[in-house]
Amino acid sequence: MGKNYVDIEKESGETLRYRKHVNGRGLIAHGAKVHPTAVVETGAYVEPGAQIAAGVHVHHGAWIESDAVIGPEADIAAHAHIGPGAAIGARAKIGVRTTVGDHAIIAMGSLIGDDEIIADREHVATDKRGLRLAA
């Protein structure tokens, strides 16, 4: 049986240890909290301090940075990037290759399409079709 962790050296020379999540085998850094019912697929990374709630699905290649919070039953598509301190509401869907900036907030149930860029500290709410609601 192989190791259940991977050590990765950062550019600064610091080494971070990531454990493989039981649901999907994605890499979870020491200090991140991932609910046991969440799925973090192979090739996805969850950085220290991030919190992933129940029923979340983080697809392959997605990157959840430090201190980001992902609400229950949210869906983070392949190769999406969730910036540090960002908050994704319950049942929100983030599209393929979409970037959510530092400390941005995506409202509960919002639908963010593929290849979108949400600016740092931006607050976004959409209807079920992905049309943005007035702030």
From TrEMBL:
Keywords: Acyltransferase, Lipid A biosynthesis, Lipid biosynthesis, Lipid metabolism, Transferase. It comes from the Bacteria. Signal peptide: none annotated. GO terms for molecular function: transferase activity. The keyword Lipid biosynthesis applies. This is Transferase. Gene3D superfamilies: Hexapeptide repeat proteins (2.160.10.10).
